[in-house]
Design goal:
Length: 197
Amino acid sequence: MARVGGLRPKRRRALVAIAGAPGSGKSTLAERLVQGLGARAALVPMDGFHLDNRVLGPRGLLPRKGAPESFDAAGFVHMVGRLATEEEVMIPVFDRDRDIAISGAAVVGPDVQVAVIEGNYLLLDEAPWSGLQPLWDVTVMLDVPMDELRRRLVQRWIDHDHTPEQAEARALSNDLPNAERVVRDSVAADLTVTATR
């Protein structure tokens, strides 16, 4: 990640996209990158832009929570643009325990020179997500074989107190279709990180 470490912002701050399928290890890589860069970097997860269940339910999207259409994508693109140019940006954070996004729960302040942004759909080649492409300074895609993603995603649901059968059903009905969409419909990244386990 020397390329990221040597970034000098062209605007107020540099924007690094860490993209990949669900279960690919985006959060872990992004956290390590921010730790390595120190105080001049901040982590910005895409998950704060999940639409609330009260919005998803009437739209029939609750079973597809986590799919591209279940996010406030236009709001996310707007926030990323603000990160490039504004001194201070308040960002929402997703509370997994309560299954809700909390508005203004974190701040990217004026001392931050590099925003490391992680999410599934950062390189998705469809509107409004495609509006992100001109904003990135460096893009990274995690490449994990589909059978390994399946194993990780099933285990994730088991770790959240699902039976193996329930975990398999959740992974197959939503997570893996989302993973396939990321792989199929994303533009090429500047850097690809390949992992098997």
